[in-house]
């Protein structure tokens, strides 16, 4: 019996320390790592501007998205897809649900208020690569423009990002941060939302417990002030299924970014999708340092999103002709978009 124990205690301390070191090394530098900025720049430049839309590839991914997530029907919460009394499970909480009572049910539109299919759509991420891109006009030329998280559209940015908006997402946390949860003056919120004209305001009201109240406040505020915007609540079943869809394709993050949710919806809702400002690196294609957003350099909280992994997926969609990813400046010769 004793013989068994002895050899184990004799393992040299040096060897076990080495083993721990190797394990740490593998943990910090896993064999698979998402592409770095330089590899990506080389890849983008090598691919060049010879992009062509591929109907077959688009139809194939659209079918996959329709099968898993049914964006046309489930994109937002409506009276049709969420009956009174339903127990709605939140997608961002562990086992938490809300029973839809009369008061909440009455906030839902009968059906998703978009004409389907939408023709040309621009999905605008907020990446610093948009700064000095002069893409504003091209973005606005789409029939339907989707923007993320109440981005500033003031005059200084219009040339680069445009101003047309049909859908803008709002994260409940910025209602708290920028507008004191609408508990005090609501006027500054109403003023700032004017930039989005007749847009729908898309809020994940049923994803996290904390997000519900601010989302409902936004709804009531806009209703009370009689603004031109309408509020749509993200359907947690849609978000959950889109999350699974991308997880199966190798995006390992706690939660997808709003941008990828919107691109996924657009691929299903729109005939043609062009995306702007999706570039999660700190340098542009010329190696020039850029800010994180086109309007500021606030870095994201780490450990929630997996931006480079998401980017690889979007880049793959670009390469296969499913959508067009605009990374270069929108120069004159590039602007008359030939659609095939
Ligand atoms: C378009 O995509 C399909 C399916 O992904 C592929 O088989 C086909 O070769 C592509 N066509 C062109 C012209 O690239
Ligand atoms: C709604 O839009 C119209 C025309 O676009 C504008 O005249 C009006 O001031 C807007 N109302 C509000 C409350 O912003």
From TrEMBL:
Residue runs in coiled coils: none
A GO term from the CC aspect: Golgi membrane
Class of enzymatic activity (EC top level): transferase
Domain of life, source organism: Eukaryota
GO molecular-function term, one example from the UniProt record: alpha-N-acetylneuraminate alpha-2,8-sialyltransferase activity
Pathway entry: Protein modification; protein glycosylation; Lipid metabolism; sphingolipid metabolism; Sphingolipid metabolism
InterPro entries: Glyco_trans_29, Glycosyltr_29_Sialyltrsf, GT29-like_sf, Sialyl_trans
Disulfide bonds: 121-270
Location (main, coarse): Golgi
Membrane topology: Single-pass type II membrane protein
Reaction catalysed by this enzyme: a ganglioside GM3 (d18:1(4E)) + CMP-N-acetyl-beta-neuraminate = a ganglioside GD3 (d18:1(4E)) + CMP + H(+); a ganglioside GD3 (d18:1(4E)) + CMP-N-acetyl-beta-neuraminate = a ganglioside GT3 (d18:1(4E)) + CMP + H(+); a ganglioside GM1b (d18:1(4E)) + CMP-N-acetyl-beta-neuraminate = a ganglioside GD1c (d18:1(4E)) + CMP + H(+); a ganglioside GT1b (d18:1(4E)) + CMP-N-acetyl-beta-neuraminate = a ganglioside GQ1b (d18:1(4E)) + CMP + H(+)
E.C. designation(s): 2.4.3.8
Subcellular location: Golgi apparatus membrane
One biological process term in Gene Ontology: sphingolipid metabolic process
PANTHER family linked to this entry: ALPHA-2,8-SIALYLTRANSFERASE, ALPHA-N-ACETYLNEURAMINIDE ALPHA-2,8-SIALYLTRANSFERASE
Family designation: Belongs to the glycosyltransferase 29 family.
Name of the molecule in the record: Alpha-N-acetylneuraminide alpha-2,8-sialyltransferase
Native source organism of the sequence: Hymenochirus boettgeri
Source lineage: Eukaryota, Metazoa, Chordata, Craniata, Vertebrata
């Amino acid at each position: 019996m004793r013989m068994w124990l002895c050899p184990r205690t004799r393992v040299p301390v040096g060897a076990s320390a080495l083993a721990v070191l190797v394990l740490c090394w593998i943990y910090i530098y896993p064999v698979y790592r998402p592409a770095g900025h330089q590899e990506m720049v080389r890849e983008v430049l090598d691919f060049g501007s010879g992009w062509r839309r591929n109907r077959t590839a688009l139809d194939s991914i659209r079918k996959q998205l329709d099968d898993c997530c049914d964006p046309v029907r489930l994109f937002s919460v409506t009276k049709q897809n969420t009956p009174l009394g339903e127990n709605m499970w939140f997608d961002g909480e562990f086992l938490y649900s809300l029973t839809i009572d009369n008061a909440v049910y009455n906030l839902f539109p009968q059906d998703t208020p978009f004409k389907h299919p939408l023709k040309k759509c621009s999905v605008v991420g907020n990446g610093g690569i948009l700064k000095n891109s002069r893409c504003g006009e091209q973005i606005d030329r789409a029939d339907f423009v989707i923007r993320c998280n109440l981005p500033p559209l003031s005059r200084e940015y219009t040339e680069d990002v445009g101003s047309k908006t049909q859908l803008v997402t709002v994260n409940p946390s910025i209602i708290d941060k920028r507008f004191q949860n609408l508990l005090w003056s609501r006027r500054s919120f109403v003023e700032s939302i004017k930039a989005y004209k007749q847009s729908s305001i898309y809020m994940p009201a049923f994803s996290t417990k904390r997000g519900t109240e601010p989302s409902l406040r936004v709804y009531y505020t806009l209703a009370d002030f009689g603004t031109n915007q309408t509020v749509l609540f993200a359907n947690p079943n849609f978000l959950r299924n889109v999350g699974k869809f991308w997880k199966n394709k190798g995006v390992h993050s706690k939660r997808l970014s709003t941008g990828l949710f919107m691109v996924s919806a657009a691929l299903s809702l729109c005939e043609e999708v062009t995306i702007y400002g999706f570039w999660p690196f700190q340098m542009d294609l010329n190696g020039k340092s850029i800010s994180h957003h086109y309007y500021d350099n606030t870095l994201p909280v780490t450990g929630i999103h997996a931006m480079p992994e998401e980017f690889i997926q979007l880049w793959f969609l670009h390469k296969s002709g499913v959508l067009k990813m605009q990374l270069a400046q929108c120069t004159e010769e590039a602007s008359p978009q030939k659609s095939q």
